[in-house]
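SAMPLE LOG
Freezer: B-3
Tube label: C17
Construct: single chain, 597 aa
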Amino acid sequence: MDARAKPHTSKPLASKPDSTQAPPIKNSRRELLVHDIFLITLMATLAGCGIIYEYLMAHYAGRVLGALESTIYAMIGIMIVAMGLGALLAKWLRCPFKSFAWLEWTIAFVGATALIVISLCISLAFTFPTYLQEIYGLHPSITTNGDVVKALATTAKATPFVVGALLGLMIGMEIPLIARIREQIHGQHLEHNLGTIYGADYIGAGIGAAIWVLFCLQLPILVAALSTALVNAIIGIAFLIKYQRYLPRRRALWLAHGGLLVLLAVLAGGGATWMENMHRALFKDHVLYTKVTPFQHLTITERVLGAGLPKITSLYINGRLQFSSNDELIYHSYLTHPPLLASARQEQILVIGGGDGLALRDILRWQPVAVTLIDLDGAMVSLFSGSDSEAPTAITERLLALNASAFQDPRVDVIIGDAFVEVESLVSAGRHFDTIIVDLPDPSHPDINKVYSTFFYLRLKQLLSGDGAIGIQSTSPFHTKQAFLSIGKTLHAAGFTTEQYHANVPTFGEWGWTIGTLRGEGPSARIADAPTMAITPPASWLSTPQILAAFVFSSRYFDELEKININTLGSHQLYQYHQRAWKQHDGAFFPDKNPFD
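STRUCTURE (predicted):
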């Protein structure tokens, strides 16, 4: 809902005409009705644009800032507060007609250029250290991250919120100005004026929200921004035509709106390329391909180490590294092989997440009868399955080589949807699986928190065969220790016999996983008793002793386990642990006790 603060209306708005305004013009009842329809329609349309701007700014801020905090909620909150301030400040604008016309021009201008300005600021902040290294000829091991660089980065990260607040401030002025315009046209105070305007505002906001969900999310975000700005510009022009008799000096307004249309045309033609170039500047490696899906921003990069050495292909989602081809095998082997070894059978496998197909590749080496994979982002699955018609052939071939064309295997059934919902459907259908692999992103956003909850794990429990096993990626056991422990404790609270293990993945550092079984021996005991692994290369380097060694932690690692809370649905406990580790502790690990005490 496009919430806005009420304007000050202690006196009739038309009781004291401003001397700078044109004298009131007497209108017939029919003319007044036409004016009312025009203004109410205008208000509903502007409310739709306002809510789209809210969602658009929140959505983009979440992408460029990596969603390490509740960016979306913070942005919407900031914009709503700014709208309230705008409504209060609107009473200081003397001529509502002239003010409204300039207001719509300014909103359209800021809305059209906001994403490019944010991209530019972020790009400059993150490329500045590299620029300093090149200027002074510093060795790559010497980092330029002093106070000035940090201040620049902080300022860049604040830019989306500053722009959002500015937009909110101006959007908040629209209701009071339209209310004043309507009363001045009627030449009297209208008793139900605010109720009428707010009714149009709320209805328009609802329609705008529907347009965002149904259409804008399917468009490139710059196209959505420019389209919304174009609507504001058209409204400004329509207002100039309709109320030109109230605007005796309007030449500057016409020139400004004409220039605005030219700017929108220029941005429509080259803005996407500019943003793409600024996005590429954020990565040290060469960017091969980027794709914006309705859910995330995918970036594929390449690093050339030298003659005769393999090229390193990496995937970034919303600017955060997901895998590097040089060591992803370590991560995916530890994710998939231990739970598969701990399962009595490996015939029916369920994978939750894993839209890159790399976990699927390793699972297929076990010769299962069928594998069901659930992933939210169909565009990502399309890219990694080779069915994305927009991706260059070289990119498609590279990605298919990485995952061994796993999605093209006839044993694989892909379900595109929210795992939280789709798992319920599988439970209702009475499905059962020998092994469940959960390869979801870190709980760095409240929306992801639900698929790390006891509620979700209880549903997975209903899907798992009694002699099967479940494996879950569980963040870093050292950088985010409380979150790691909470995942293990939450799975145990759902009725699993739970153990946790860890290994070093050079790209990420020390990483951890959680494994659970339902009956009989615990996971590590099952793995120890399992026959020698018959896994085809290149995963043959992962031996049973190697896996069992991963279950070993320092003697006091679990001393504080009793103080760790489980993650229930709606509690956001795990999200808070993850946030605390990275925001407050900067991912630093501290032993709980001095081992020499």
